């Protein structure tokens, strides 16, 4: 007789998320998650078919924390879109190693789909439809994902910016000057300032 299941999908996802937070995406494996749960890797296969299914559980576990309800309609569409983007960023930055998985499992996460549905409603309110709306949503997600990766992998306050600021001005005048200015830009200003540039272009 098969052993009765005793772990919930949320418990499996929580264990996988603990591995991701501690060891990064490269450290995520069926064996590592099984160890986190105090069981053998073979025992874990009684709950999930493979790592792909486990990844999907983790993505939904993280994105389920995002508030996907539409913001109050009293504000402008772009202010409400800023709120939606801020909610997504706050959730993902708590678990940055999950970020690449949100791309490969975007079609499997009900919470991720609900966030995009709300964002699309706001883009529609802004007058976008058809291909332009497709490109706008894709560009918006591209900005959010890229900005979060830059914040964690290549922050403006990091050593890379210092190195660029010290480049010879005759060879890299714009890079060197821009890097010197970048050192004083905080992470909040960097993210939401870039978002403003995007939204201004979108509203044009």
From TrEMBL:
Pfam families named among the record's database cross-references: TetR_C_1, TetR_N
PROSITE patterns assigned: HTH_TETR_2
HTH tetR-type domain segment(s): 6-66
Keyword field contains Repressor: yes
Keywords: DNA-binding, Repressor, Transcription, Transcription regulation
DNA-binding region of this protein: 29-48
InterPro entries per UniProt: Homeodomain-like_sf (IPR009057), HTH-type_TetR-like_transc_reg (IPR050109), HTH_TetR (IPR001647), Repressor_TetR_C (IPR004111), Tet_transcr_reg_TetR (IPR003012), Tet_transcr_reg_TetR-rel_C_sf (IPR036271)
Protein name: TetR/AcrR family transcriptional regulator C-terminal domain-containing protein
């Amino acid at each position: 007789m098969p052993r009765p299941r005793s772990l919930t999908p949320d418990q499996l996802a929580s264990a996988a998320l603990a591995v991701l937070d501690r060891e990064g995406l490269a450290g995520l494996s069926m064996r590592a998650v099984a160890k986190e749960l105090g069981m053998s890797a073979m025992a874990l296969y009684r709950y999930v078919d493979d790592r792909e299914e486990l990844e999907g559980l983790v993505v939904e576990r993280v994105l389920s924390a995002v508030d996907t309800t539409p913001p109050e309609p009293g504000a402008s569409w772009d202010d409400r879109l800023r709120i939606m983007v801020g909610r997504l960023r706050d959730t993902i930055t708590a678990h940055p190693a999950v970020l690449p998985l949100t791309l490969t499992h975007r079609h499997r996460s009900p919470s991720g789909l609900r966030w995009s549905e709300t964002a699309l409603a706001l883009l529609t309110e802004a007058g976008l439809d058809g291909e332009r709306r497709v490109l706008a949503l894709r560009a918006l997600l591209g900005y959010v994902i890229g900005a979060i990766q830059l914040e964690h992998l290549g922050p403006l306050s990091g050593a890379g910016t210092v190195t660029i600021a010290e480049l010879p001005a005759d060879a890299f005048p714009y890079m060197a000057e821009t890097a010197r200015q970048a050192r004083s830009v905080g992470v909040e200003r960097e993210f939401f300032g870039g978002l403003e540039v995007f939204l201004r272009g979108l509203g044009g």
